[in-house]
């Protein structure tokens, strides 16, 4: 996922591939690792280790971490460095409440503004999400689920909501990684398809009701107990080193 400013709309290719500068790609890899739950809340993000992994200076890594901190998924601690944000129970509840308000507004606007072309693109994204879970690629499926909600915000055609939603979706992913119950069920793609049916029918009340049910489903999966991943940055980003070795990057 390419890095975007809060005011810049996301292109149709945002959810298909990464592009842009090396800095954008570093941002995307770290962001995806958080959304895919490969980076657990509280994980220390060593500038030195990340610089070695991506083959760039600590200055570049620091800039990317600052951008992620702006979105609420990284915490910068004075004199102690950066960590993946670690929301408290109260912070988690506040984030989820805010997410509900934003999702409601976005859904209402999507019903009004969505074009046939945009709805088709959303259907394709949900199909890709479903395929990932079916093939056991749950991390990618989780990320695509979040991207579905970001794409809805774009379709709503309200740029402030895009910025709010990007931060809230990212923080919600952290909350799920930290507090989700051990027994997991991923049926978001079914709920996403039902939501798209209501949007296509221009049924605002049903669309909003389905979105709130979707948020209920997220809440029901949380137990507010830790369920973290590894904190070994080299293991998390091992594919980066393999890619750099193949291309001869320094």
From TrEMBL:
One GO molecular-function annotation for this sequence?
DNA-binding transcription factor activity
State the UniProt keywords alphabetically: DNA-binding, Transcription, Transcription regulation
Domain HTH gntR-type residue range list = 20-87
Query: Which Pfam families does UniProt cross-reference here?
Result: FCD (PF07729), GntR (PF00392)
- InterPro entries documented for this protein: GntR_C (IPR011711), TF_FadR/GntR_C (IPR008920), Tscrpt_reg_HTH_GntR (IPR000524), WH-like_DNA-bd_sf (IPR036388), WH_DNA-bd_sf (IPR036390)
| Lineage: superkingdom | Bacteria
Q: Which CDD domains match?
A: WHTH_GntR
Protein name, UniProt field: GntR family transcriptional regulator
């Amino acid at each position: 996922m390419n890095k975007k400013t809060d005011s810049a709309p996301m292109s149709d290719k945002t959810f298909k591939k990464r592009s842009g500068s090396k800095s954008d790609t570093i941002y995307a890899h770290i962001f995806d690792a958080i959304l895919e739950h490969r980076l657990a809340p509280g994980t220390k993000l060593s500038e030195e280790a990340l610089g070695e992994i991506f083959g760039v200076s600590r200055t570049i890594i620091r800039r990317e971490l600052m951008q992620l901190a702006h979105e609420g998924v990284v915490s910068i601690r004075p004199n102690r460095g950066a960590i993946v944000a670690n929301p408290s129970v109260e912070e988690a509840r506040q984030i989820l409440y805010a997410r509900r308000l934003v999702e409601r507004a976005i859904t209402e606007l999507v019903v009004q503004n969505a074009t046939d072309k945009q709805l088709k693109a959303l259907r394709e994204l949900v199909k890709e999400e479903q395929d990932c879970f079916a093939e056991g690629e749950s991390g990618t499926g989780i990320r695509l689920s979040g991207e579905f909600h970001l794409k809805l915000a774009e379709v709503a055609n309200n740029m402030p909501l895009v910025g709010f939603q990007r931060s809230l979706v990212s923080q919600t992913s952290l909350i799920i990684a930290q507090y989700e119950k051990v027994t997991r069920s991923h049926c978001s793609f079914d709920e996403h398809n039902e939501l798209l049916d209501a949007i296509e029918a221009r049924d605002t009340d049903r669309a909003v009701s389905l979105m709130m049910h979707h948020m209920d489903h997220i809440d029901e999966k949380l137990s507010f107990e830790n369920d973290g991943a590894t904190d070994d940055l080299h293991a998390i980003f091992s594919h980066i080193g393999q890619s750099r070795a193949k291309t001869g990057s320094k």
